[in-house]
Amino acid sequence: MSEKNVVSAGSPIHSANYWRSLQELANTDEYRAQVENEFPHGVDAQGDGWSRRRFLQVMSASIAMASLAGCRFPQEKIVPFAQRPEGVMPGTPMRFATTMELGPVASSVVATSYDGRPIKVDGNPAMGLSQGATSAFAQASVLDVYDPDRSQKILRRNGMGRSGGSWDDFLAFARGAGKGRMAVLAGASTSPAQNALLARLGQAGAGVFLWEPVCRVNEMKGAKLAFGTAALCQLDLSHARVLVDLDANLLQDHPTAIRNSKQFSAARRPDDGHMNRLYCWETTYSITGGMADHRFPTPATHMAAAVWALAAELVLGEGLPLPHGAGVDRAALARWKGHAAGGEHLSAVAKDLMAHRGESLLVAGLRLDPEVHALVHTLNEALGNVGHTVSYLPIQTPQIRFLPELVEALNKGQVETLVILGGNPVYTAPADLDFAAAMQKATHRVHLATHDDATSKLATWHIPQAHYLESWGDAMGWDMTHLSVQPLIAPLFGGKTATEVLSAFVDPTPRTSHEIARDSFHAMTGGQGAAPAVDADGGFEKRWRAFIHDGFRQDSGRAHGEPLALAGTPLTAPAEPPHLSADDLEIHFVHDQSVFDGRFADNAWLQEMPDFMTKLTWDNAALLGPATADELGVKHGDMVRLSYGGRELEMAVYVLPGQARHAVTVNLGYGRGDAGRVGQGAGFNAYALRTFAHLHQDHGLKLAKTGATYKLATTQDHHAIDQAGAQEIQKRVPGLVREGSLAEYKADEHFVDHLGIHSPPLESLWKEWEYNGHKWGMAIDLNLCNGCNACVIGCQAENNIAVVGKDEVSRGREMSWVRLDRYFMGDPDDPKVAQQPVACAQCEMAPCEQVCPVAATMHTREGLNAMVYNRCVGTRYCSNNCPYKVRRFNWFNNFEDLTETQRLVLNPDVTVRARGVMEKCTYCVQRIEGARVAARTEGRAMRDGDITPACQQTCPSDAIVFGDLNDPESRVSKLREHSRSYDLLNYLNLKPRTFYMARIRNPNPAITPVAMHDGGHGGGHGGGQETGQDAGHAGQGHG
């Protein structure tokens, strides 16, 4: 991008230019060609042959499951979460508490089961860490149960290749395996049962090693440096007035991200005139950066220097006394005072922290060095935050041995039997270790895995791994709550848990996972030996059943940690950060928000979920900032060659606003050759460049164009129609995403009414319907929504929404009912971001209803804009007439080729749509009817809170509220009257039932001078011509 296309950031928040992509901002020839074409990307109904086959592959993987015989109830007794009926009533959903582990983080969830098959995963409302909300990963995990590419049998290698084996054969092998020359490679797990078995193996002489591609070891090491013991940080954002996020992404990547989101949101409501303030230092835009009041793009290799510079400003500039036991002194900080790595606003941030001692919080991210974590602990102690906004839970950690030690032992021939529990280290291990070659030097190689992946293909024994919804076990939450894992279904393919594999090696008589879980619970509650099979007084059995019913042990866990004394261990200051340039770029490795470290590569829901910032689907890319891309002469979609450490990787470029200068971010988890029919060939394998010495970031990267281009399927410019032109768009967008500063809100609570396009009083063409009963509506608070995508996947799981594949997404045919629009504003190299979820607004004067020739879309007596699917003939007039562009058309018969067995993954309460049918958000009408039936059964009226749509249920930030607008005491009714509430495209007189609440930012006046609103109408007055034009493009685009 050339300098003439760069837009300067305006100081008043409401007057900044909004844009959705750099192509739109620059108004490039390619962008104009796209928007001038009424039917971009050749939206013909008939795709080419490859696309059709690929589409069917993706759909079968998204919907398919094993044979009906596999859907049987487990033999062991499990306990429903909400009720325990005398018998199972067919067709009645039951809910069970269980636990999902993602690396070293365990989350208590509640899974919904229909007739013995899990179909939905939500947060456990009884757990303080989730309070009923979940991440997109948890929502999508249920799809993995029915993945047709899962391993379906035990495989063993012999002289003729690989053939089928049995569990008894493996048990016989395990009994004869010597422990002295055995090594176990495990991923991070909090399970007391698994860790106890690993400890027994270690005591018997086996080596136990850890490899987790997304590891939190630096946090543990940092706590040990600071306090002399490992500890888990317990954050309390509800008491923090000033937050400093140091590459932590505390609203998404932190182990307590869901609780963090809820507490952050609770302190983000400006009605009492007080709001927290968030500062963020990061390399690539995160959702936390998007919510920050001030964000400072910083290369990852400069992050440590930035933290030391902030410490120097606090101690030397503001006179903050260092606490007793600090591992750093004033002399050590002197060289960092005023260091450029901290940016020009360090003094203002330091003054803000000093003004809020005891009410502030600094959080360091997992990619930062242990010394940085220790320094952050020291600063929190010095600021008086410990015991108020942060506390600690000391933990005992075993001596950890890492992957390089195992590789060394393998290369020296010291390992005869290698047991790998989960993961795919041949794919994820650092490239410099050459784990594949080292692994094959062990005589016996056992791999427990969900898929027959690259590691399994080199193993002599491959054991199918049970999904967590098929498993018995336990885990420990981040607050040290003892959590239960119980199955909703017997393993579909005979899968085994890690504890069962370990038991085969250490127990004279191997135990089942159910027996192991009971024994572990017995030990955790003070018992000795095996759990009693029959407890005469009923004490153990009662406690056990309460444990699996609730999902956690009531007397475990701690809501708050404790203060820990600093140990005084001297901290080593970082080296001078490298001078980055176009010839010496930084490479920054991050896990992906769709496939994580690659374990979700075969999950079609996540693959098709647009990234919250790039809006990229089905791919990763090399992320560069606009100035860096301009300096290197590359643009969006160019193929480039990345050279680092003697290794090369060709990858596509994505030019991302807000990316730190001369930093190239690559997402891990893509480019797998063994990912199954969904993930096969998606993206580029960034692990090929990663080394153990530099797992997170390094400099020395070279980037060169190859001359080729690559199609990236993004959703950011869909529905862009250039009728009014860029100038008119800029007039309208501030009326779509309305926001202002806290100072503006204090001065005029109704400033929102002055934004957007003004119109005279509007009247309806016909008499409006009077609603004497319920009148459903929804509020979406843009001050709380961070764009995390949890609602997108929650809606997909609840409403049987199809995936369509990369090619169809490129044509604008994605089916998601919830669209997260993302807007940038200001300088492309340092923009602000606004997020806006858009779904069917359930308009009272719905333009879709006015043009449907067959009354397939119509109004109900409670105000829902309903779809009658069997009337729809697919004219798509409704979609053309919808100003919000939220209707989805089924271009293919997505479910036609599926057997009755495969259809069992679907929610039976939601109609499956056929080809040629339009669909869109229904406010989860099935849940409305379910709540109505429940209230009628109980002989009472429906109450506020009885109905929770899927999007609201899963939202970690409580940004969505649903209810009855006719009930003056309902939350949604009160929010409707709030001064921040407004209707999207209100001048079209559509009277939408979904309304929005404006975002309020809280900038530091010392950094961003406050400019008060002048009382104008933001974009001028809109006449009839402007209104008609805007109906064509308003509410446009995916971000």
Your description of this structure?
It is a single chain. By secondary structure, this protein is α/β, with parallel strands linked by helices. Among the domains are: 3-41 and 718-1033, Alpha-Beta Plaits; 233-393, Dimethylsulfoxide Reductase, domain 2 (3-Layer(aba) Sandwich); 620-711, Barwin-like endoglucanases (Beta Barrel). 26% of the residues lie in helices and 18% in strands. The protein contains 32 helices and 39 strands. Strands 6-5-17-16-15-7-8 form a 7-stranded mixed beta sheet, sandwiched between helices. Strand 10 (242-246), helix 8 and strand 11 form a beta-alpha-beta unit. Helix 6 runs parallel beside helix 17 (498-506) and helix 7 crosses helix 13. The chain is globular and about 85 Å long. Mean pLDDT is 85; it is low at 1-15, 38-50, 62-74, 719-725 and 1014-1039.
